[in-house]
Amino acid sequence: MVGVLLFAYITVNLFLKCQGQTIHQAKIYSENSEVPEGGRLEVTCSTFGFTVKAVYSYLCKNGKAILMKKGTPRQDTTFKIERIEMNASGNYSCVFSEEQLEITKVTGYGQNYIFINVIESFIYTQITLLKPEVPVGSDAEFNCSTSKPLHKNLSKNMIWAYLIKNGTPVEVNIWDTEKMMTTLTLRDVRIEDAGTYSCVVFLNILPYHGMRLHQNITVNLEITGKNGRGQTKKKLQFRVII
Ligand SMILES: *[C@@H]1O[C@H](CO)[C@@H](O)[C@H](O)[C@H]1NC(C)=O
Ligand SMILES: *[C@@H]1O[C@H](CO)[C@@H](O)[C@H](O)[C@H]1NC(C)=O
Ligand SMILES: *[C@@H]1O[C@H](CO)[C@@H](O)[C@H](O)[C@H]1NC(C)=O
Ligand SMILES: *[C@@H]1O[C@H](CO)[C@@H](O)[C@H](O)[C@H]1NC(C)=O
Ligand SMILES: *[C@@H]1O[C@H](CO)[C@@H](O)[C@H](O)[C@H]1NC(C)=O
């Protein structure tokens, strides 16, 4: 009997929480509503005017809580999300509760909302090899280009183009916004430099360790022996994978 009553009590309690009776609206602030892909989203939840207690604040995206923090009395709570992905775009707002609730059960919109737009940070460009043959010890030159000009409003600073091998930047050069291209040179190539290369332009962000760079438009560099001696024919393969 006691077990049944306890069960009923817990059920009713959960039901109330699901009904949103313990969830209250808070305010959200953010300095930017545009965040570059790979950058940091920083928003502040404020319960000022709603409570003077230390409460649990929840950051909601599209009406569902995604993060929770226990606040201190009369203090705003800041949420930071690093290395944001394109799918983080959405309608952000803040709610709070006096008791800690299970995050997946917290839904709703706060007093106000901010639509956060994740903007593109990388542009994968066309890539070609300028020289058809690259023997050991010489330079391999890559030509990276776009057919459309980049949105200049995206970056007021210098734009950098990176040569990517195995998802990692190996060379960098300044992007020529007039000619919509740049040349990247690998000097004094060794046998190990053979492989698949891509070119990516960074608009709003600098590369960081652990960044994921796709390689969907590629060229394949082959390195031949010093004087053409040996088994490998001097050959440079060109390939575009789309
Ligand atoms: C966003 O996409 C990444 C992979 O591209 C995935 O790991 C992550 O769970 C997604 N996040 C959301 C909120 O959908
Ligand atoms: C964000 O959510 C609010 C509350 O549901 C809604 O009124 C508003 O239209 C949404 N805005 C966008 C841009 O989706
Ligand atoms: C680089 O490639 C682009 C597009 O393929 C081409 O128009 C341009 O002339 C090339 N630049 C050089 C210096 O070869
Ligand atoms: C850049 O300009 C385009 C076209 O006018 C616009 O759609 C885009 O939102 C702008 N981006 C930024 C970061 O201002
Ligand atoms: C390469 O990948 C990026 C990111 O996934 C995508 O935006 C772009 O359209 C792709 N390009 C091609 C030519 O497939």
Report what the structure shows:
The protein is mainly beta and 242 residues long. It is built from 1 helix and 19 strands. The protein folds into 2 domains: 98 residues, Immunoglobulin-like (Sandwich), CATH 2.60.40.10; 103 residues, Immunoglobulins (Immunoglobulin-like). The strands form 5 sheets. Strands 1, 3, 5, 6, 8 and 9 form a 6-stranded mixed beta sheet that branches. Strands 10, 14, 15, 17 and 18 form a 5-stranded antiparallel beta sheet that branches. Strands 2-4-7 form a 3-stranded antiparallel beta sheet, with no helix packed on it. Strand 14 and strand 15 form a beta hairpin. Bound molecules: 2-acetamido-2-deoxy-beta-D-glucopyranose (5 copies). The site of one 2-acetamido-2-deoxy-beta-D-glucopyranose has 5 residues, from loops. The site of one 2-acetamido-2-deoxy-beta-D-glucopyranose (NAG) has 5 residues, from loops. Keywords: Immunoglobulin domain, Signal. InterPro entries: Ig-like_dom, Ig-like_dom_sf, Ig-like_fold, Ig_sub, Immunoglobulin_dom.
List the total number of helices: 1
The overall pLDDT average reads: 83
The CATH topology label of the largest domain is Immunoglobulin-like
* Cofactors, ions, other ligands: 2-acetamido-2-deoxy-beta-D-glucopyranose
The level of helicity is under 10%
CATH homologous superfamily assignment of the largest domain:
Immunoglobulins
Q: Could you tell me the strand content as a percent range?
A: 35-45%
What overall form do the CA principal axes indicate? elongated
Biggest beta sheet attributes = 6 strands, mixed
Q: Which CATH class of the largest domain?
A: Mainly Beta
Q: Give the name of the CATH architecture of the largest domain.
A: Sandwich
Radius of gyration: 27 Å
Structural class: mainly beta
